[in-house]
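for the writeup, i need someone to sanity check this before i put it in the appendix. the sequnce is what the collaborator sent (i think, or maybe the updated version? ugh). structure was predicted straight from it, no edits. if anything looks off just tell me and ill rerun, i have time this weekend
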Amino acid sequence: MSTSQIPAPENRLETSVEMGTLCAFYGGLLTGKQLEAVTLYYQEDLSLGEIAEQLGCTRQSVHELIVRSGEKLRAYEAAVGAAARMRGVAEQLEKAAALLEGVCAQALPQQARADVEQALGLIRETIEQEENDHGI
């Protein structure tokens, strides 16, 4: 996809997820109007015309605003990499949880089973919190 275009419909879901994640990490670095346009387009699924009406501007200016905002968000991620790091952490936590689930399936002393289940609960809680906070 060219960085000067809004994604084709077949790429819309993937791009919506990407933009949602990037907004969770870097949305505070956008202007209010940029964040509103990106949110309305990718998360609320409004058309350019509908957003233009809400913002009191033209479809073309909304298009340019969304494209520029997406480029900014991607540039922040390229520079900082927080979303990619968080995805990596989430993947590692998922692997650890799978290993602990395997251990729980074995015959264990009662206290060991309780400890493993508690660790598994903490991992799941952490993953869920990150999903809620950052859309990872």
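The mean pLDDT is 91. Residues 110-134 form the longest helix (25 residues).
thx in advance!!
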